Amino acid sequence: MEQVAARRPLVHCITNYVTVGDVANMVLACGGSPIMADDPAEVEEITAICDGLALNTGTLNARTIPSMLAAGRTANRLGRPVVLDPVGAGASRLRTETVRQLLEQVRFTVIRGNSSEMRVVAQQQPAGASRGVDAGAGDATSEQNLDQVVRGAKELAGRTGAVVAVTGAIDVVAGPQRAYIIRNGHPMMERITGTGCMLTGVVAAWCAANPQDPLRAAAAAVCAMGLCGQLAWEQAQREGGGVGLMRIHLADWMGKLTSAKLEEGRQVELG
Amino acid sequence: MEQVAARRPLVHCITNYVTVGDVANMVLACGGSPIMADDPAEVEEITAICDGLALNTGTLNARTIPSMLAAGRTANRLGRPVVLDPVGAGASRLRTETVRQLLEQVRFTVIRGNSSEMRVVAQQQPAGASRGVDAGAGDATSEQNLDQVVRGAKELAGRTGAVVAVTGAIDVVAGPQRAYIIRNGHPMMERITGTGCMLTGVVAAWCAANPQDPLRAAAAAVCAMGLCGQLAWEQAQREGGGVGLMRIHLADWMGKLTSAKLEEGRQVELG
Amino acid sequence: MEQVAARRPLVHCITNYVTVGDVANMVLACGGSPIMADDPAEVEEITAICDGLALNTGTLNARTIPSMLAAGRTANRLGRPVVLDPVGAGASRLRTETVRQLLEQVRFTVIRGNSSEMRVVAQQQPAGASRGVDAGAGDATSEQNLDQVVRGAKELAGRTGAVVAVTGAIDVVAGPQRAYIIRNGHPMMERITGTGCMLTGVVAAWCAANPQDPLRAAAAAVCAMGLCGQLAWEQAQREGGGVGLMRIHLADWMGKLTSAKLEEGRQVELG
């Protein structure tokens, strides 16, 4: 976190238009500086002036798919961290196929998705079985299937060379050898659109500030987002609010989070 | 409302990029699960995995118009409810013409707009007379012209086969025979962008959960949104806030609304 | 301000999709009525029904660039105020080149940007030296270089015929002869995405209501936004919130601002 504050990393985001404003505000809140640009005519230049890149496949279209591929290849060439958020992978052939192309042409530093999306990424699930952009109930990580999720995440990390983050009620952030099991977060976070997209922005900013250790940077980002969700819900409840106010306090808490607070509130174990 | 909570309907939204995040959050708050997708290459598949579809003509473009038509036809083929929000109909030929095409090629379950837009839908008004995306003053529903609005809405419902919702200071939700006159809501809702778009999302979610009775589902959604607006403004005022805080509390209240609270707060009569 | 309340000017915005919802809400809060439309097939008609136009080069693309040019020329032909926000000018050739084309083909009433963007506009800086969408540290307006910024702004105003607003820690709003130096605002405004875009919307609304005096209208808008930022941060702090809550209160305060409050809180001097 100190690295982020010190470096104020510029993060290029090609992300869906549903949650793009929340992603920008969250990147700012976590210490980064976001820039959104998705036209093929400028993405390579924008990636080149940035410290990291986040690619998100929500509301993708014929114009933005080549932009994602070009930006990803540029980041690879320049050695900048690239994070993939395969939103809706499995929900349509276009998204699944785009994720496949991205995995083929771009080396990712971190891949972060919900359990359904990550199963598509791991090709453990045929296209079409996802439930929209939310994780299917059968895919959710639970105490029962946790060992299996950890094993799958490590295996996928080994195959792709990327840190693999499967987020949900329990989050797993894994490299080929080591995995963090994270129990921060609050169930109401699911009722706010874009908590996943925002987390991806934070992961990208923190990896951009700590390119030498993406596993720890990603795990810290996942803890931080979950902890802010807990604090935001508590505060919203105290103030007589609900999910609307929670969304606002989520950004509030990210902006106020200190290393000490994160250290104290994180619920992590090695898996 | 119980149906929505039980079914958690997936709602495919092709909606403008101005208010899309607020629509997504409102669909979540009212018990649905939103998915936004607007590329011709994926909309039919996305519609097919969803329980309902919402089409909104704000910020439409050459790429999204065929997407709306294709998604609408797919929903019709599969028997899923489709809601039309003719944002800005009458403000440009492109919007008026798109609305015309949509009405020609898609059977709508509900059409919801302000009085100016609904006049264009009813072809009672030549293109160009709308005042942007807000209702023109001369079109507003008042106690004076209420009977006429109710008659017009019923007539349009008869002609289109859709439930017709003309929303404003007084809301009219009509089938061919029966109409609900709803006096919930607060004038400050006009000062928040997208209250109409958000309402359309709620209508789509509630119709998706109650496809057998779209008239009552739509009327309940209109009551709920109006009631949440009243509660949100009261709370914002109590807390020393204004329209910004009201917007947040609107989602808060939708997330907290119970059947009992709606029953108690609704201001409906038959027309 | 009285003019805005009385006229409720319609403002056509072609603006980036990151902050578009916040811009719409801010235009409403400051007394205007926003309409967003960016397809070449409708922009000229939309501009023609509006009282003012705001063009913003964030997330521009191959489809929206001709729309901006066409809308700008239409506004010029009809004598409506046009405001340019050259977001990210200098960050990519596409943005710099688009700004150049806009300046060549459209007469602007006001040009508002941060110091890095305005240096690109003034061609004092080669393309590529900007730091994303935020001002570079070396460009920031300070007490040390204030005289120089004021001189540059006046000179640019003379050359372009537009009111020139260079905003940052200290804001300068200049015509060829006269400049206002404005010290309202709060450093935390930088940590919210889109405060610049929102200000551009307010400038466009206030110029649309006061087309005869764009210099004073723009200066008043800059004061108002800064003052609302101060009030919003104070209130967020008092309530135990941070940047998230500040963003909400920014719109709250704009909606509640009166001429008397603005008069009392403004920190302006002539330069």
Structure description:
Chain A is 49% helix and 14% strand. The first copy, chain A, has 271 residues and is an alpha/beta fold. Chain A binds chain B through residues 16-22, 58-62, 88, 91-95, 128, 130-134, 191-194, 236, 240-245, 247-248, and chain B through 10, 17, 20-21, 24-25, 28-29, 33-39, 41-42, 45-46, 49-50, 63, 235, 247-253, 255-256.
How many strand segments of chain A? 9
Portion of residues within helices of chain A: 40-55%
Summed over residues and divided by their number, the pLDDT of chain A gives a mean of 94
Outline the biggest β-sheet of chain A: 9 strands, mixed
In whole angstroms, how far apart are the ends of chain A? 23 Å
Enumerate the strands of the largest sheet of chain A in spatial order, edge to edge or round the barrel: 2-1-3-4-5-6-7-8-9
As a whole number of angstroms, the C-alpha radius of gyration of chain A is 17 Å
Count of DSSP helices of chain A? 11
> What is the chain-wise order of helices and strands of chain A?
HEHEHEHEHEHHEEEHHHHE
Question: What is the chains' assembly state?
Answer: homotrimer
Classify the beta-strand content of chain A into a percent band. 5-15%
Shape label of chain A: globular
Structural class of chain A: alpha/beta
The low-pLDDT segments of chain A are 125-129
Largest interface: chains, residues each? A-B, 37 and 32 residues
